[in-house]
Amino acid sequence: MDLSTTYLGFSLPHPLMPGASPLAENLDTVKRLEDAGAAAIVMYSLFEEQIIADQERSVREVEVPENSYAEALSYHPLVDEVRHGPDFYLEKVAAVKRCVSVPVIGSLNGVSEGGWIRYARLIEQAGADALELNIYFLAEDPLVSGVAVEEHLLGVVRQVKQSVAIPVAVKLSPFLSSLPHFCKQLEEAGADGVILFNRFYQPDIDTENLEAFSRLKLSTSDELLLRLRWLAILSECFRFSLGVTGGVHTGMDVVKSVMCGAHGVQMVSALLRNRPEYLTTVKNELSAWLESHQYDSLDQMRGSMGKHHTPDRAVLERVNYIRVLLGGPG
Ligand SMILES: Cc1cc2nc3c(=O)[nH]c(=O)nc-3n(C[C@H](O)[C@H](O)[C@H](O)COP(=O)(O)O)c2cc1C
Hints:
39% of the residues lie in helices and 15% in strands. It contains twelve helices and twelve strands. The protein has helices spanning 27-35, 48-63, 86-99, 118-125, 146-163, 179-188, 224-234, 251-259, 269-274, 278-292, 298-301, 318-327; strands spanning 5-7, 10-12, 16-18, 41-47, 104-109, 130-134, 168-172, 193-196, 204-206, 211-213, 241-245, 264-267. α4 (118-125) links the parallel β5 (104-109) and β6. α7 (224-234) packs parallel to α8 (251-259) and α8 (251-259) packs across α10. Flavin mononucleotide binds at residues 19-22, 44-45, 107, 109, 134, 171, 199, 216, 219, 223, 245-248, 267-270. Residues 19-22, 44-45, 107, 109, 134, 171, 199, 216, 219, 223, 245-248, 267-270 line the site of flavin mononucleotide.
């Protein structure tokens, strides 16, 4: 079965790859992923905060011996938590690149328009074939409008695009008031693709100790539905690559993602839960499904459930919400 796809300008044998996560931390795991057939390796992120913490740590190390007011120096909350600095990350990109023959996608995670952006170029120089830019942003300030937030994020994307020659995909949040409009601006800013969506880890509250706490939960296929809706809408408007992350666990999840227009399909929770070799199982399920439904290729199926192809288009729109509520639980 021809599962080939073009993602961020790369001709890949199929769309499946591990998403940004610790799966790329260990070179043995990376090799196992490649052996399992991963079409590309996405690195875990280098965070803006890590870069700043590293810079602040360097300043403290230089200044503390002569400065008795060390605690008065600017202090980043992550400065002692971050295990590895940016140099370690760049070395890891280079090591992963040496270890595999598939494309390696670096990941840079940040939101301010600061010096950390130069790491996009350094990740490229370390050997990354493409870059994911994760712009996780929490808009908390009542005085900052949605337009201002978007303009700011676009500024970051423009700066990154100007500093590298490799393709850049932007990993997005679903919490934007007009996603298609923002994607249009991203396209104009030179983004080579978008990845839907960042998964937000909401803190819970410990009511006894009056503390907020976070716990990482792996996803289920339910989370894919939000992605499918937006893939179906965006795939009709854009020519750039569409990647999906969040809730891909089975071959059927991949079928649905591609039907809605995805070119690249990422898995993290499923591979963490079932081992890297599970990627082969999902790829085989995808092949088997296409064969049993008489498709000649994956391309033939792509976009068949895009918004304008869906017979009942209203199911993607507001009408769906009303119908579901009036219908009650099924
Ligand atoms: C343990 C763990 C670490 C992750 N680290 C990153 C990261 O460094 N950068 C990033 O953009 N996303 C990161 N993610 C998010 C994943 O790339 C992915 O978008 C998310 O888990 C949803 O996909 P899934 O449903 O296949 O797990 C991480 C997820 C997990 C579970």
